[in-house]
Amino acid sequence: MYLEIVRFLRRATPKKYRKPIVLGKQLADAKEKERQRKSVLGDVPSPLPKAKYSVQEKWLLNPVENQLDRDLKRAYNQFSHLTQSQRDIFRKSISLDEFYILLTFSQRCAVFAIREKDHFVLRAGFGAIAMIEMERTDFRDVSGPVGLLYYAANRIGFDPASEISEAAKLSEPNVQKLLLDFLKWQGGSKFTLKSWLYKEVETSEGLGIVNLSIHKYNPQSDLLKIILDISKLIEADEYITVSLDLGERIPEVWFGNQKEMAKKELHQANGTICVHARLNEKYGENAWKQSLFLWLAEMKKDKSPAYLMELIRSKHIEGRYLLAVGIDKLFCLVVAGSWVEKVESFEKEDSLLRFENGIKEALIEGQHKY
Predict the structure, then answer these.
(1) I need a surface site. Which of 166, 170, 188, 292 has the fewest CB within 10 A?
(2) Radius of gyration of the chain (CA)
(3) Which of 195, 223, 249 is the last residue of a domain?
(4) How many domains, in total, are found in the chain?
(5) How far is CA 99 from the centre of its chain?
(6) 3-state secondary structure string across 321-369
(7) Does the residue 205 lie in any domain?
(8) 206 domain-assigned
(9) Is 210 a domain residue?
């Protein structure tokens, strides 16, 4: 199935990018197109609201509708009633940064549409993609929301082919091609949410969607609930959670010269979740340089967490600071530090110990509850 996705993305790739990909080239080209647009149009006012989503609002785990969502639905309604020439002007007036706001909105619409069984929200999500110029984005970023919205349409009983065809009519040629190619590729039976590396979960607000790795994820414990409890502990301190991935294995590199032994043990885990957080924005524009990664794994054997903790030994590797906690079958590893060369780490020797008791409590409660 993953090979099929790669084939679709290759077909959707503009011809100029079908040579070996140079990392960052697509976005660099998009920024150049944006520069050219500004040089021609100047400071043309955008038809979109002057707002953006926070880091956590980009999550699909537990989105809550806000004013920006409502404003963007109104923008779609306006866009959908324009003539083709008017839509071209509307689209040209949107900045590169705003295209990525539209992509976030389209993903949020997929979740809201499923929760509310709302046809208009579904169409607004597809319409947001139709507002985008492919040349002023990395084309791969446009593909993800298409799959989510296709899934949402199927999930609530609407014909996804019809919805995509309607969005294609509103789109510029490159986006239109991507949408229609998606229909040809999925063939009515190939597409699943798992194949697009997402998974449905239940949250306090209803259905949510999380990123899914290609690795095995079949824990007996509710690892998602446990790691979200630990994330609250991290967020009450100095960090903002950026992303969460189910099935993302713990890299054995953190085990130093014991990494081969650790790798053998880690690959037997029933499932692992990874949370990425960065330093709070109150630390200014350099906050993104300080990251914290939190992995939670359910091991097959009760003795495995203690064994892994013994393998780590060191709490400091190459400017990163480590904290390992194990309870029964659950093993948690925290790694924090500066991820930019020559930038001093916010965390210091043993500073991560402030999280140890809270993590232990979350692991104990999780084991007893589940």
Answers:
(1) 188
(2) 22
(3) 195
(4) 2
(5) 16
(6) EEEEEEECCEEEEEEEEECCCCCCCCCCCCHHHHHHHHHHHHHHHHHHH
(7) no
(8) no
(9) no
Q: Are residues 149 and 298 in the same domain?
A: no
Structural domain boundaries enclosing 160: 2-195
Residues 62 and 98 in one domain: yes
Residues 177 and 233 in one domain: no
- Give the whole-angstrom CA distance, residue 332 versus residue 240: 19
The pTM of the whole model exceeds 0.90:
no
Residue 278's H or E segment, with its range, is: strand 271-279
Query: Using an 8 Å Cβ cutoff, are 274 and 244 in contact?
Result: yes
Sheet holding 290-298, edge to edge: 198-203, 206-212, 239-246, 271-279, 290-298, 330-338, 320-327, 316-317
Looking up tokens 């190459």 gives 318
Q: How far is CA 184 from the centre of its chain?
A: 26
Token couple for 205: 């607000």
Round to whole Å and give the CA distance between 322 and 313: 10
Where does residue 133 rank: exposed (0-12), middle (13-18), buried (19+ CB within 10 A)? buried
Distances (CA, A) of 231 to 126, 234, 236: 32, 5, 8
Nearest to 271 by CA among 223, 332, 211, 208: 223
Q: What is the pLDDT along the chain (370 residues), one digit of tens a residue?
A: 444 454 455 455 555 544 555 546 888 999 999 999 999 988 889 999 999 999 889 989 999 999 999 999 999 999 999 999 999 999 999 999 999 999 999 999 999 999 999 999 999 999 999 999 999 999 889 988 999 999 999 999 999 999 999 999 999 999 999 999 998 877 555 678 888 889 998 887 789 999 998 888 999 999 999 999 999 999 999 999 999 999 999 999 999 889 999 999 999 999 999 999 999 888 777 788 899 999 999 999 999 999 999 998 777 777 789 999 999 999 999 999 988 888 888 998 889 999 999 999 999 988 765 4
User: Who's near 347: CB < 8 A, 6+ residues apart?
Assistant: 290, 292, 321, 336, 337
With respect to residue 146, please indicate whether it lies within any of the assigned structural domains.
yes
